[in-house]
Design goal:
Layout (H helix, E strand, L loop, with lengths): L2 E5 L2 E4 L4 E8 L8 E6 L6 E6 L5 E3 L7 E6 L4 E6 L8 E7 L2 E2 L3 E6 L1
Parallel strand pairs: 2-11
Antiparallel strand pairs: 1-3, 3-8, 4-5, 4-9, 5-6, 7-8, 9-10, 9-11
Length: about 110
């Protein structure tokens, strides 16, 4: 079955960096757009970044210039490199692909 497993979250100080990973299985990863979403307490889940099957990225305005999404089709993995983190980036980050969701990984940015 389709599985998406995120890793790499944690606690970091403002201005720091984290790299999230999402390992996919159960579908032909290279053929699908993959995305990273986040949900902060009391807020709706929002798209952070997505990358097409061809490798074209797009980003939410709030993370442009700070976050980079990438994919390694040989490893069936999508990454989200997050630099210059801010307290408002604190959320549970979810991977999405093939209409499936991962379980989420917590990112907490302290001021």
């Amino acid at each position: 079955q389709v599985q998406l497993v995120e890793s790499g979250g944690g606690l970091v100080q403002s201005g720091g960096s984290l790299r999230l990973s999402c390992a996919a299985s159960g579908f032909t990863f290279s053929r699908y757009t993959m995305g990273w979403y986040r949900q902060a307490p009391g807020k709706e889940r929002e798209l952070v970044a997505a990358i097409s099957a061809g490798g074209s990225p797009n980003y939410a305005d709030s993370v442009k210039g700070r976050f980079t999404i990438s994919r390694d089709n040989a490893k069936n993995t999508v990454y989200l490199l997050m630099n210059s983190l801010k307290p408002e980036d604190t959320a549970v980050y979810y991977c999405r692909g093939y209409a499936a969701w991962g379980q989420g990984t917590q990112v907490t940015v302290s001021s």
